[in-house]
């Protein structure tokens, strides 16, 4: 296959790889925001017979069931297909889902489309972070992964403002165009991914050392070749970690739920918890339902609700840029902790305002409404600057080499299932308990703080192999680590130095 990027190296190939990963997250962000606008269009309401709050919750939330199914697929097959193939499969499935949704005339087809689209995006969200983390260097890995989430916020912005652009359209276009527009991102990703290098860490874990070396060369500097000391040292570190994970002889799937030399169970738990916390923060209770919330509780028109909701995406994008500049200096855990405190305060204030909302239509009600919207904006700003990027980068960083795809699949299952929970319960919760729902979300955020500070490990500035060695060094006094180092060193003394150059066959 002709590959115009095959001869590119270093920063150039890393830039294209980041663009490919960001395109996948652009779709993710777009899908998170697009349905909040289309569910209030006259076409949607007429076509699907004015769904009540419960059916509306199912239509929104069943997408998350699909996302969980896509993550489960990656749990079992992520290590088999590799990062690139899994991304392409995810894009193809998401295309089918988008077409089914955009052409739906019945609730049944809409639900199938939502599930299929969710499966595709679940595969993408389980894989993109792995590919980026495994092809980045420790000093700028956080910044590159933060860029992906900037594009996620960009997707949300596009979705909300495309919906606003169709705010005066009562026809099919106001529903169909926003849904089908995501095909543009998917087609671009499918074209770009095959031109880029596969993860050298996945290749090494599969025993494909020659291809891993070639991938490292493409990701390295212009001076690197397969025999250069830097490439060989990096390859040796990857081999050492791969052998370390096999020392206890436990089958790889079981090892994810046990301790072992690299403490896989503990690390999978941290990855799952961080994704669960992200959803329990309440972000999608706002993302999905800002227009509905504004119409129901503040009395705004459909058009006003759409442009007010659209401002949240502008704020989200503006603040999502900030971690690109500070996340590799401040670190993941301090950023997440500070964000949890701020988010909790915002929800407590919103709850207090809703609890004392004056009678609808009065000037006082308008003032309260403005205050509520202001704190929703502040929540989005804090979330985007502190949780949007770090929560998605933490799992790929903390997980072990051979269990990375499987562990990330488990973590993303947690993300989608709790996303489902929040999206499903938000309409009836707002209907039945009103302002108290925001008190619950505020309490969740406050509870994250001690858990993060006491039980989570900082990943900034450490290579993925360094993190494996860190956990191994804390397991039984590091005896397994020393044994692995000796085994790898002995193996390299017996093997010829350098990897043989072969044709890349990704």
Automatic annotation (TrEMBL):
<keyword id="KW-0472">Membrane</keyword>
<feature type="transmembrane region" description="Helical">
    <location>
        <begin position="87"/>
        <end position="104"/>
    </location>
</feature>
<keyword id="KW-0813">Transport</keyword>
<dbReference type="InterPro" id="IPR036259">
    <property type="entry name" value="MFS_trans_sf"/>
</dbReference>
<comment type="similarity">
    <text>Belongs to the major facilitator superfamily. Sugar transporter (TC 2.A.1.1) family.</text>
</comment>
<keyword id="KW-0812">Transmembrane</keyword>
<feature type="transmembrane region" description="Helical">
    <location>
        <begin position="143"/>
        <end position="162"/>
    </location>
</feature>
<dbReference type="GO" id="GO:0016020">
    <property type="term" value="C:membrane"/>
</dbReference>
<feature type="transmembrane region" description="Helical">
    <location>
        <begin position="110"/>
        <end position="131"/>
    </location>
</feature>
<keyword id="KW-1133">Transmembrane helix</keyword>
<feature type="transmembrane region" description="Helical">
    <location>
        <begin position="174"/>
        <end position="196"/>
    </location>
</feature>
<feature type="transmembrane region" description="Helical">
    <location>
        <begin position="367"/>
        <end position="388"/>
    </location>
</feature>
<feature type="transmembrane region" description="Helical">
    <location>
        <begin position="408"/>
        <end position="425"/>
    </location>
</feature>
<dbReference type="InterPro" id="IPR005828">
    <property type="entry name" value="MFS_sugar_transport-like"/>
</dbReference>
<dbReference type="InterPro" id="IPR003663">
    <property type="entry name" value="Sugar/inositol_transpt"/>
</dbReference>
<dbReference type="InterPro" id="IPR020846">
    <property type="entry name" value="MFS_dom"/>
</dbReference>
<feature type="transmembrane region" description="Helical">
    <location>
        <begin position="333"/>
        <end position="355"/>
    </location>
</feature>
<feature type="domain" description="Major facilitator superfamily (MFS) profile">
    <location>
        <begin position="17"/>
        <end position="460"/>
    </location>
</feature>
<dbReference type="GO" id="GO:0005351">
    <property type="term" value="F:carbohydrate:proton symporter activity"/>
</dbReference>
<feature type="transmembrane region" description="Helical">
    <location>
        <begin position="60"/>
        <end position="80"/>
    </location>
</feature>
<feature type="transmembrane region" description="Helical">
    <location>
        <begin position="306"/>
        <end position="327"/>
    </location>
</feature>
<dbReference type="Pfam" id="PF00083">
    <property type="entry name" value="Sugar_tr"/>
</dbReference>
<feature type="transmembrane region" description="Helical">
    <location>
        <begin position="437"/>
        <end position="457"/>
    </location>
</feature>
<protein>
    <submittedName>
        <fullName>General substrate transporter</fullName>
    </submittedName>
</protein>
<dbReference type="InterPro" id="IPR050360">
    <property type="entry name" value="MFS_Sugar_Transporters"/>
</dbReference>
